[in-house]
């Protein structure tokens, strides 16, 4: 980037135009740099931040969503289950932080049962809640933990 700015500055200062035109061109270049460079830097993403992933890119994403909903509804009369996992963001930090967004429905499994995604099917395919879960997973020690979970009722656009 510095090379481009140096080349532009040389072209501007070696231009045979009068001083007023050079100052106008220099101000235009300075304005462009002040506005464009921060935008380019910020759009590149922050190191260590969350990165969007395709939902179907790794089966671990759905496993973590099921883990989160099982933990979240373990004390309910019936477990909820994941209907649709629709957004996944991953951050690598001494393990993996997953930010998962999904829809839920009440399952056929009672809260006293053991939760299993294959057996705890939805009672009806109607969205009960839209959830955002943060799950921290350290695969090399087998540790996973729901660090945050927020669910809210859906609006009409999520009805099946």
Categorize the overall geometry. Answer: elongated
Helix-strand topology string: HHEHEEEE
The overall number of domains is: 2
Q: Report the top-level CATH class of the largest domain.
A: Alpha Beta
Average pLDDT number: 83
The number of E-state strands comes to 5
The termini sit apart by 51 Å
In percent terms, what proportion of residues is strand?
Answer: 25-35%
CATH topology of the largest domain: Nuclear Transport Factor 2, Chain: A
* CA radius of gyration: 26 Å
What is the makeup of the main sheet?
5 strands, antiparallel
Number of helices: 3
CATH architecture of the largest domain: Roll
Sheet with most strands: strand arrangement = 1-2-3-4-5
Secondary-structure-derived class: alpha+beta
What this model shows, in words?
With 160 residues, this protein is of the alpha+beta class. It folds into 2 domains: 2-43, no CATH class; 51-158, Nuclear Transport Factor 2, Chain: A, CATH 3.10.450. Helices cover 32% and strands 33% of the residues. It has 3 helices and 5 strands; from the N terminus they run H-H-E-H-E-E-E-E. The protein has helices spanning 2-13, 19-43, 59-72; strands spanning 51-53, 78-92, 96-110, 129-138, 143-152. A 5-stranded antiparallel beta sheet has the order 1-2-3-4-5. Helix 1 runs antiparallel to helix 2. The protein is elongated, with a radius of gyration of 26 Å.
């Amino acid at each position: 980037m510095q090379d481009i700015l140096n080349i532009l500055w040389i072209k501007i200062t070696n231009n045979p135009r009068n001083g007023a035109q050079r100052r106008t061109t220099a101000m235009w270049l300075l304005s462009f740099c002040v506005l464009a460079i921060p935008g380019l830097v910020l759009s590149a993403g922050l190191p260590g931040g969350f990165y969007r992933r395709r939902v179907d890119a790794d089966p671990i994403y759905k496993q973590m969503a099921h883990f989160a909903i099982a933990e979240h509804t373990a004390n309910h009369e019936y477990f909820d289950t994941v209907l649709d996992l629709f957004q996944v963001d991953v951050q690598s930090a001494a393990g993996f932080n997953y930010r998962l967004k999904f829809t839920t429905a009440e399952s056929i499994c009672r809260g006293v049962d053991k939760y299993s995604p294959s057996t705890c099917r939805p009672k009806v395919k109607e969205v009960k809640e839209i959830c955002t879960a943060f799950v921290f997973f350290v695969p090399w020690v087998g540790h996973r933990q729901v660090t945050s979970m927020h669910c809210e009722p859906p609006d009409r656009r999520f009805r099946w």
